TrEMBL record:
Its main location: endoplasmic reticulum. InterPro entries: C2_domain_sf (IPR035892), DnaJ_domain (IPR001623), DnaJ_domain_CS (IPR018253), Ig_E-set (IPR014756), J_dom_sf (IPR036869), Sec63-dom (IPR004179). It comes from the Eukaryota. It is found in: Endoplasmic reticulum membrane. SUPFAM superfamilies: Chaperone J-domain, E set domains, Sec63 N-terminal domain-like. Pfam families: DnaJ (PF00226), Sec63 (PF02889). This is J domain-containing protein. GO terms for cellular component: Sec62/Sec63 complex. The lineage of its organism: Eukaryota, Fungi, Dikarya, Ascomycota, Pezizomycotina. GO terms for molecular function: protein transmembrane transporter activity; RNA binding. Residues 639-651, 671-700 have a biased composition (Acidic residues). SMART domains: DnaJ (SM00271), Sec63 (SM00973). GO terms for biological process: post-translational protein targeting to endoplasmic reticulum membrane; SRP-dependent cotranslational protein targeting to membrane.
């Protein structure tokens, strides 16, 4: 038996090989590009409408675009994907249009043109006729059919072999065992490459390409990915940076201390390599020390840091937060570069603070995020978030008060008073004032209306049950006018139907409740189920990144200074925030829910609920909420008592017995549907806030 190697001369097999090889590279890259685009919520989100530009807006815009190109879809990757899909498409075209060589099985009956049921006599007769017809001495080639003598000879040989396979015992055995009258045959291996590629000395280059692809490039890519994941934490920062932040953690740290701790990140060493660490450092420090925007405490922290990348990073951070002009294009660019790096490091510090479950460091981390995004120094006035507001304008509003004025408080004042405070010589012009007011009226301030606890489908909360914290609030931009009153139905949280498992588990959003019918059952809006609604991108003129605002809801124990329920983060909501114009607020009631396990003991538990926005200063809410956990046996007794119905008012016997002082006969309702029909209420639809918490006014 021999083995022959045949190359794909007709071009039938090699398109399969090229298609497979190309798809191995193209499909994963395509998936990564699609995934990265979907993970960028800023790609399709709206922005606050304003024409405000500060002196360094061009630098910030350039850095934003540069970062999008770096983190997003790189042009060469897009070109590679397009080329890959083009090659794959062409290979599919070749596969469909190229006729594959047909392999025919050798069959003596087909060659003789007889049926497999033919007798030996019929076989001999047919062979005799064909041999006379195709015998080389008698047959003549037909020119019209392009026949040659060789074709007739091959035909005669095939006829002879077919006859022998059906009559000669040895030849017949070869045909039965090996499928060929000549016995065991060799086989050929078709290589899915044109012969020209591996012939004439080209084979070594093909081997070299294979080795480069599968022996060098593929292990390198896999190794880079693997060791890259080991070098970074799940928050996306370098592990060495996370270790340094862990050492900087303190239980009494404030937002200024968080900023100082963030400067220890290793990412700054990569940003300021070699001589970059000392270039312009003295100039930055001199301007920072001379600035009145930073308190002496923060300046002292800068002096205590040793020279090097960390000292320059901290100096630039204070220059960024204080909006200090450095007078040098390179330093100005570096000033805006450090803030996004520090913001990314802050995510790791937030995770460390959450691991300790102490309230102060966790809040300091969130407040530091606000300051970094808005470029406002720690303890500085929230009014710096407004366009054109500088220290002179802020002093005109706040005067000598040690308590800073929030954007909401400023906007709540009458227009005439606001104008008299900030419009004038050395302050704002009339056009700047109008631009500021229009800007402030678009900021997404979440005003909490109510917060309560509940257990889905139950009227009471028992120990260790799964409790849902329901927070109801509306987006009311500062200075909003004609804000509609909150209706009672907006503050209720209707339980989904018992058979609607997707709604109970939160896998789908329920329709908005617009009222109740005469039996107390909810009436839903006719529109389709709502989709996730994202607020506009954080308005951050100085922050060189696009950032989608996040709201963090968590419970703390004020007496112990500890976090009782870890934060739940909300990036989207279930109702539209603005009308189609993107500026007019809808004032729709939003619902945020967080589930946690109730304490194992019955009692009244008072928590402080924090609703913190990571993007705006002073847009936070703090209020007390009380969780009432009933003993399981007591809750069962209370439920039984509520299920006992009152005597029917139209029952004559009941009225007479009541008049005589005789005991009335009470009926225990066992069927929940019967109880609903008689009382006009539904246990699943009752708002049990009065039983589970004490409402207080939100403290802003």
């Amino acid at each position: 038996m021999s083995t022959d190697y045949a190359y794909d001369e007709e071009g039938h097999l090699w398109p399969f090989f090229v298609f497979t090889l190309t798809s191995i590279v193209t499909v994963p890259i395509t998936y990564s590009l699609i995934k990265s685009s979907r993970n960028d919520p800023a790609a399709a989100l709206k922005r606050i409408q304003t024409d405000y530009k500060h002196d360094q807006s061009a630098v910030v815009d350039t850095l934003r675009k540069s970062e999008k190109r770096k983190d997003g879809s790189k042009p060469w990757l897009i070109a590679l994907v397009i080329a890959g899909w083009a090659v794959m498409g062409y290979m599919i075209y070749l596969i469909k249009t190229t006729d594959a060589p047909v392999q025919h099985l050798w069959n003596p009956y087909d060659i003789l043109g007889i049926a497999e049921s033919a007798t030996e006599k019929q076989i001999k007769k047919t062979y005799k006729m064909l041999s006379l017809k195709f015998h080389p001495d008698k047959a003549r080639p037909d020119a019209s059919k392009n026949e040659t003598i060789d074709d007739l000879n091959r035909r005669y040989v095939e006829i002879s072999k077919a006859y022998q396979a059906l009559t000669d015992e040895d030849v017949r055995n070869n045909f039965i065992q090996f499928g060929n009258p000549d016995g065991k045959q060799g086989f050929s291996i078709n290589i899915a490459l044109p012969k020209a590629i591996v012939s004439d000395g080209n084979g070594k280059y093909i081997v070299l390409i294979y080795f480069a692809l599968f022996g060098v490039l593929l292990p390198y890519l896999v190794g880079s990915w693997w060791y890259g994941t080991l070098r970074r934490s799940k928050e996306g920062v370098l592990m060495e940076s996370a270790n340094r932040l862990f050492k900087e953690y303190q239980d009494n740290i404030d937002e200024g201390g968080v900023v100082a701790a963030l400067s220890s990140g290793q990412e700054f060493e990569d940003l300021f390599k070699g001589d970059k660490a000392d270039a312009g450092l003295s100039k930055i420090e001199s301007k920072v020390m001379a600035s009145d925007e930073l308190p002496p405490k923060e300046k002292k922290k800068l002096e205590d840091v040793e020279s090097g990348p960390r000292r320059k990073a901290l100096a630039l951070l204070w220059a960024y937060l204080g909006r200090i002009e450095l007078g040098d294009a390179t330093l100005e660019k570096a000033k805006f570069q450090v803030a996004p790096v520090a913001h990314a490091l802050n995510k790791s510090f937030n995770a460390i603070a959450l691991a300790y479950m102490n309230t102060a460091p966790l809040l300091a981390s969130y407040f530091a995020s606000q300051r970094l995004i808005q470029a406002i120094p720690p303890k500085a006035s929230p009014l710096y978030q407004l366009p054109h507001f500088n220290s002179a304008v802020v002093r005109a509003v706040e005067g000598d008060s040690r308590v800073h004025t929030t954007v909401q408080a400023f906007m709540d004042q009458p227009d005439a008073k606001r104008r008299s405070l900030v419009v004038g010589k050395g302050l704002l012009t009339d056009a700047q004032y109008k631009e500021t007011i229009a800007y402030a009226k678009q900021l997404p301030y979440l005003r909490v209306a109510k917060a309560f606890f509940k257990v889905t489908g139950e009227k009471f909360i028992i120990p260790s049950s799964l409790v849902t914290l329901v927070v109801k609030g509306r987006f009311v931009p500062p200075g909003s006018e004609k804000v509609p009153d909150v209706t009672p139905i907006d503050l209720e949280d209707i339980d989904p139907a018992e058979d609607d498992l997707d709604a109970i588990l939160g896998r789908k959003k329920t329709k908005k409740v617009v009222g109740k019918d005469e039996k107390g059952k909810p009436i839903y809006e006719e529109s389709a189920e709502s989709e996730d609604v994202y607020p506009p991108l954080a308005s951050s003129p100085y922050f060189a990144r696009d950032h989608s605002p996040r709201w963090h809801v968590f419970l703390t124990d004020s007496k112990q200074g500890r976090v009782a329920v870890p934060p739940f983060t909300f990036v989207s909501f279930d109702r539209p925030i603005y009308e189609s114009d993107g500026k007019t607020p809808t004032f729709a009631m939003q619902t945020m829910k967080a589930q946690f396990q109730a304490p194992p003991q019955a009692g009244h538990y008072t928590f402080v609920m924090h609703v913190v926005c990571d993007s705006y200063v002073g847009f936070d809410t703090k209020m007390e909420v009380t969780l009432v956990v009933e003993d399981a046996s007591r809750a069962a007794e209370m439920k039984d008592e509520e299920e006992i119905s009152e005597p029917e008012e139209d029952s004559i016997a009941g009225i007479m017995n009541a008049a005589k002082g005789a005991p009335t006969k009470q009926r225990v309702v066992k069927d929940e549907e019967d109880s609903d029909e008689e009382s006009g209420t539904d246990d699943d639809e009752d708002d049990d806030t009065s039983d589970t918490n004490t409402d207080t006014e939100p403290e802003n």
